[in-house]
Amino acid sequence: MTISNPNPDIVMVGCRIHVGNTSASNIPSEITIFHRVIKLDEGMRSWYDIPFTTAESLLADEEFTISVGRTFDGSSIPRIDSIEAYGRAKDEFGWKEKLDAALDMEALGSSSTGGRSGKRPQIVQAAPIQEQVLADALRILSRVYLLCRPSCFTDMVDAGMEVNNLKCRALLETIFQSDREPLLHSTACRVLQAVFPKKDMYYQVIPIFVVY
After folding, report:
1. Which residues contact 19 (CB under 8 A, 6 or more apart)?
2. Using only C-alpha atoms, what is the Rg of the chain?
3. pLDDT digit string (tens) for 49-63?
4. Contact, 63 vs 4, CB < 8 A?
5. What is the percentage of the chain residues whose pLDDT exceeds 70?
């Protein structure tokens, strides 16, 4: 299930869920939020408070998803009785400063690719949680570019901004070089779509990164 935020001045910073009110047999054994698996107590009606990390709050600007696991006995339908989302004003949260910090992907790109000298190294096969964390970082970066585009990227794109100006170019190249990272491929595409919103320009840029 997806929880949406209709207020652009508020960022969601956590949630709480209530289970067990309908029936103890309908309590899910676990729920998943932002790749975090939260185990619930069997047979216990209870509220669960789930604060978000800073990165999760940035990703939950507009919405977040809760995945519900099976019940403990596996024969009943899992139910969540109530969900409450916590929000903070973006100014109080420090939204702009945290987005600015998320822009600094150059260090991440350099450490992930080992630099750009010589032959580009193969991407290291990551464990699922490592892929998810990097994918979340790319989603944040794409959102940063989308939010900044009206003020600072529009002129650059209209003037024919070169791919070389992207701080995260080395990271994107390494991701696209691998054919074993579909999750990272899709989130890397989102970054390019945010920087190059016009379809004709995007399709001119994507072949630079993708080798078919």
Report:
1. 26, 27, 28, 40, 45, 46, 48, 79, 80, 81
2. 20
3. 999 888 788 888 788
4. yes
5. 71
Cα separation, 65 vs 3, whole angstroms: 6
Query: Any idea where the domains of the chain sit in the sequence?
Result: 2-93, 104-209
Question: What are 110-119's contacts with CB under 8 Å, separation 24+?
Answer: 110/170, 112/170, 112/171, 112/174, 113/170, 113/171, 113/173, 113/174, 115/170, 116/170
Q: Are 57 and 93 in contact (CB under 8 A)?
A: yes
21 to 31, 47, 73, 145: CA distances (angstroms): 17, 10, 17, 43
3 state SS of 36: strand
pLDDT tens for each residue of 104-161: 543 444 444 444 434 333 333 434 667 777 888 888 888 887 776 544 444 444 434 5
CA proximity to 3, closest of 69, 71, 52: 52
Q: How far apart are CA 212 and CA 207, in angstroms?
A: 8
Who has greater pLDDT, 153 or 205? 205
Which neighbouring-strand residues pair with 68? 31
Instruction: Tell me how far CA of residue 108 lies from CA of 9, 82, 137, 158, 198, in angstroms.
Output: 29, 39, 10, 28, 27
Cβ proximity of 141 and 191 under 8 Å: yes
